[in-house]
Amino acid sequence: MDINMGNGGIGVPVVRRDAMAKVLGVAQYAADFPHENTAYAALTLSKVARGRISRLDTAAAEAVAGVRMVLTHRSLNESLGDETFVMKGGHMQSSFLPLTSDEIHYAGQIVSLTIADTLEAAEEAARLVAIDYAREAASASMDDAGLTEEPADSGIDVGDAEAAFAAAEVKVDATYVTPAQHHNPIELYAASAAWQDGKLLINLPSQWVMGTRAGLAKVFGIPIEDVHVESPYVGGAFGAKASILPHVVLVAMAARRLGRPVKLVVPREAGFTVGSFRPAARSRVRLAATRQGKLTAVMHDEVGQSAVIDHVAFAGMEATSKMYASPNIRMRAATVATDVNSPGFMRAPAEAPSFFGFESAMDELAVALGIDPVELRIMNEPARDPVSGLPWSSRLLVECYRRGAALFGWSDRNPKPGSMVAADGTLIGYGCATATYPSAMAPSSARVRLSADGSCVVYCAAHDVGTGAYTVLGQVAADVLGVPDELVTVEMGHSRHPSGPVSGGSITTGSAGSAVHMAARAVRERLFATVAAGQDRSKMTLADRHVVLPDGSRRAISDIIGGLPGGVIEEHADWKPTDMDDKTMQQGLAGGMAFAGPVGGTHVSFSFGAQFAEVRIDPLLRTIRVARMVGVFACGRIINPRTARSNLMGGMIWGASSALLEESQIDRARGRFANTDLASYHFAANADVGEVVVEMLDEHDSVVNAIGTKAVGEVGIVGMPAAIANAVYHATGVRVRKTPILMEDLL
Amino acid sequence: MTSITLTVNGEPITATIPPRLHLADFLRDHLGLTGTHLGCEHGVCGACTVRLDGAIVRGCLVLAVQADCCTVETIEGLSDSGEVADLQHAFAARNALQCGYCTPGMVMTAQDFLLHAPADASRAAIREHLSGNYCRCTGYEAIVDAVETTLNARRTS
Ligand code: FES
Ligand code: FES
Question: Which of B22, B27, B28, B38 to mutate to test the pocket of ligand 1 (most atoms within 8 A of CB)?
Fold first, then answer.
């Protein structure tokens, strides 16, 4: 493909490097890798939510022709050892590994893994594994009676919010609920494991190849170098593929025991409980203001669904407490343990549920004050972080609102609910909300190689989960080295590459990108040093495959590098965020979770956005359509406007989907997720989405990192559900304080 | 085991297979045509879309034995023949793919739309036709852009 001929540097809308492989159907995802003589695995899942296995009979399953092994808690006799849950410093999706005991902790728990010569035989046998359970009462919903809230160790307090709230002239006090949701990337979870000479090669879709390698090495008690994790293409992740799922360990154990490669593709239904999910949450928001609209108290109490087997907490208070200027802020969080598989990261894990409530409450306050909701937010823009008092590394939220309002046509809005009606009677509603996401970073390594022919290769064990990292990381190197895009190659998604961070928390570009930048600069330095020792390097530049010397003369890169031993210049860099100590950095580079930010020693770094929605509601049937969405974002420097726009747009469509469609329904009597397939777990199809407009402001952030980038991947979803709920209120006068917002909520 | 004879991407194939094998698994595991993806295995997501005797079907809902004596075309076949080169180019140019997992199925369905759509088909008609193919990433807006671009280009060429 020749679309990209020419400059492939920072800021250029370079076409995705992986585009052709994907449109041609040749990109290899985890389940596409052939291993010779592979055996196929199938799962049997628990039908009860809590209890014990009282009887287990695998005879019928083992009698199926072609069956090689039926792994159950009786036959496994292995464990995770010291390896544990990702939120306890390990790499696993859960601290509990199925098949290590007869205990059942949640419905859909793996109770056996059957392996056969063919997939069909494995599936048939898996159905024949006979199990009886001693069933105990279970609660999969945090609304079940008798469950207790466990308060978090710490909250956030500025001033005296309770007193200010009690004394306030205008106030809002409301509670908002969001349901459990599942990521449902279109690519199913999969794992394909092969052992050779004590070394493990595993293909799986991964957002964290280094963490997966470190975790599996620990589980199997083998050196880190003996584990190879391969994940060049990932068919969507959204947080689902960030930690090691239990089936991955079981498949590797089975392959070792059988002495034969084993492959498992986890069926969609099983994915609901083999993987993680976004837990349900409840937000009570209390806002108080003067009659003129100045906030005097901001309070947010969040309760999140957790699991009995693992404590998981995703309160959004770190972000909501920083949204608006208020002298008094009080944030609290709590969790409720339920009998479910461990919840996990899902696109803006803390922020998306939290902002639905918080930004709905801001709209309710605007209504109570009779102030335009855009103006209310602008009036309360904080000059500094209201909690730490530190300056922002950059914050153009007001500019986002001004530009977004203009793009959307906000001035056409008649604030009176139900006042905007189309000629056919359709109710029209306009709503807005703020989006934000922390710009954290993690240590990363990278290697950059420049060859005599002018080509450049970037190596980093980061991942392109659809975000565009293959393209973006190459652009960073191309920018430093003046290499045209068609001569850039990027190799990622394999644990043999220099250490890359987990692709979660919207950190890849800032972290891996900074490492690539550092390595590329080292290559440039060596090039300059080679060509003209003793000359002023700061006056040398690179252009068109030539080094331009201070006197204006040019030396071809091919001549310079061609004369070097090996014919290449290659540099490795280990990069860490400014405030991180060396020990934490080393832990991170060795496959540990090591984040810095968004609150640093000298500044606070978040991405921001203003989001607008127009809904159209049938006056009788009350069907809701999102006709238009507009999002204007300030995310620092945009390396590639083409891929960044798609991330933000994808996030906004997720937001619309979340607002109107998505819910993992819980069958409370049986303590299980009820809609565990794509026919009944609804998310947005093409016809559900109207026009989507995305703009990114030209924001210069010289503090956040050397390349000036902030978080892009998740901020797009954050404000959208509230913007839509606020638009629904504007269209109908009905305030719905839960998602998904359904037609029956408007009757 | 059953023996079937069919044409896949122009090549005659004879295979002995279990009757319960579905077409998508046959293409992927037996013929190595892994461009056909699986996302739900019950006909909802469209990732497994292939052409069977010229009409698009869900590879996960068709048994391989049902394709006996039929012609099957997959993304690999359409790519090799160049039939969808312009559409694929438009997908890349409009960034109508992110993770790319839905993309082969989306291209198959989009080409089906383009072959049958009136030249003045609207964006709404494109959206409607593509609504049986999920893109979770979600590039819907860009996918509609890419199909519309191709529709316009084919009309004028
Ligand atoms: S896999 Fe066939 S429609 Fe989803
Ligand atoms: S590009 Fe990822 S599902 Fe469509």
Answer: B38
Q: Which residues of A are catalytic?
A: 714
**Same domain for B71 and B6:** yes
> In this predicted model, what pLDDT tens digit does every residue of A458-468 receive, in sequence order?
999 999 999 99
Measured CA to CA, the distance from residue A681 to residue A674 in angstroms comes to: 9
Boundary of a domain, candidates B77, B95, B130: B77
CA distance B37 to B134: 12
Distance separating alpha carbons of residues A573 and A347, to the nearest angstrom: 29
Residues of B in contact with A643 (CB under 8 A): 95
pLDDT of res. A4: 46
Closest CA to ligand 2's atom 4? B135
DSSP at A550: T
Q: What burial letters (b/e) apply to A501-515, b meaning 16+ CB within 10 Å?
A: bbbbbbbbbbbbbbb
- CA of residue B47 to ligand 2 center, whole Å: 9
Q: What is the distance between the alpha carbons of residues A190 and A457, in angstroms, rounded to a whole number?
A: 29
How close, in Å, is residue A575 to chain B by CA atoms? 27
Question: Does one domain contain both B68 and B112?
Answer: no
Query: What CATH number did the domain enclosing B24 receive?
Result: 3.10.20.30
Shared domain for B10 and B71, answered yes or no, is: yes
**Cα distance between residue A690 and residue A646, in whole Å:** 15
Distances (CA, A) of A56 to A52, A61, A70: 11, 11, 11
**Ramachandran region, residue A447 (left: φ > 0; alpha: ψ -120 to 50; beta: rest):** beta
Query: Considering the entire predicted model, what is its pTM?
Result: 0.97
Give the residue from B77, B106, B140 where a domain finishes: B77
Which residues from chain A sit within 8 angstroms of residue B127, using beta carbons? 686-687, 689
What is the interface pTM, i.e. ipTM, of the complex? 0.98
Q: Which residues contact A527 (CB under 8 A, 6 or more apart)?
A: A450, A542, A547, A557, A560, A561, A569
Q: Does residue B72 sit in the same domain as residue B90?
A: no
User: CATH number, domain at B99?
Assistant: 1.10.150.120
| Domains within chain A, CATH numbers bracketed | 19-26+443-588 (3.30.365.10), 33-138+186-237+241-274 (3.30.365.10), 281-439+600-746 (3.30.365.10)
Q: Is B30 at the interface with chain A, CB within 8 A?
A: no
If asked whether residues B94 and B125 sit together in one domain, one would say yes
B23 and B70 both lie in a single domain: yes
Contact call for residues A87 and A240 (beta carbons, < 8 A):
no
Whether B21 and chain A come into contact, CB under 8 Å, resolves to yes
- What string of DSSP letters covers A686-702? GGGEEEEEEEE-----S
**What is the domain count for chain B?**
2
Looking at the predicted structure, is the pLDDT value of residue A64 above 60? yes
Asked if residue A20 lies in contact with residue B88, where contact means CB atoms within 8 angstroms, the answer is yes
What are the pLDDT digits (tens) for B99-155? 999 999 999 999 999 999 998 999 999 999 999 999 999 999 999 999 999 999 999
Ligand nearest to the CA of B38: 1
Residue range(s) defining the domain that contains residue B114: 84-156
In angstroms, the CA A253 to CA A699 distance is 49
Instruction: Provide mean pLDDT across the span A232-238.
Output: 97
B102 with B48, same domain: the answer is no
Cβ(A372)–Cβ(A583) below 8 Å: no
How far is CA A737 from each of CA A328, A721, B59, rounded to the nearest angstrom? 24, 11, 41
Q: Are B65 and B93 in the same domain?
A: no
- Residue among A118, A679, A685 minimizing CB distance to B131: A685
